[in-house]
Write a structure and sequence with these properties.
heterodimer; A: mainly beta; 7-stranded mixed beta sheet; 4-stranded antiparallel beta sheet; 11 strands; B: mainly beta; 9 strands; globular
Chain lengths: 113, 109
Amino acid sequence: DTGVSQDPRHKITKRGQNVTFRCDPISEHNRLYWYRQTLGQGPEFLTYFQNEAQLEKSRLLSDRFSAERPKGSFSTLEIQRTEQGDSAMYLCASTPRGQATQFFGPGTRLTVL
Amino acid sequence: DAKTTQPNSMESNEEEPVHLPCNHSTISGTDYIHWYRQLPSQGPEYVIHGLTSNVNNRMASLAIAEDRKSSTLILHRATLRDAAVYYCILRNYGQNFVFGPGTRLSVLP
């Protein structure tokens, strides 16, 4: 049973660089979510997809952030011109059709120097 | 979004039961109560959820007050592997999960 996978697990970048993260959901899960989590806080919702359609975006998702799920399978989250405030854990979760339970990946920890 | 209130931290001894409380006084009639937990260096994982009746699964039990304004997650016999942050979340149909800071559970050997 393969769960949600995320790549890379850790990313260190310099301020101003672009970074891209990948999430592979559980097979046949139609909904995919991105969250951001900072130290001591719970995950904060960023955006979600139903199949390939991006249905909702949080106001936390500035115009430097873009997410895609081109074929309704894996998803990418890109952050352009990274800032130190972007340092966080980025979590991906997927949900099977007709259910509410979210299955989370291990996250990508981003450090912006 | 309906809000929940949980203690910041709790301690338990290994092999003893743990009762993790959650207050949600503004819960609506169609809000489900969900519990997730997050072990160190991992993403959150589903524990249990319910609407009105108490629920049991292999991980835990969920006791829901009759007025639904509070609930309690019960771990029947805590192990060291249960040390985690536990999140109580209300979710209505079609809404996204809103995580608070949760309760950090420490389990003492």
